[in-house]
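One such shown below:
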Amino acid sequence: MTLYETTKLLWDLTRPAPFRNKELIELFRNNPDEMFNRYDLTQEEKDAVAKGDLSRLFKMGVHPRIMYRTGKFYGVKTAEEYVNRIK
């Protein structure tokens, strides 16, 4: 597992608005394979990111602050929903 690379990718996707990498977000939405080529991820990590599998990402060890931002990126609206999705 390449936890650093997974965390880096999630940080790059979820940076605060003034620092957001719009090109990377566009790649994620339209050509995720090309985006994944920029990071050294396992297939399991790619699948978890592509599917927005917060539970799997959390269990892999992604930092809680990055996880919270990632949840928002995937459309999580409430703390209750976030908690349910990381279980």
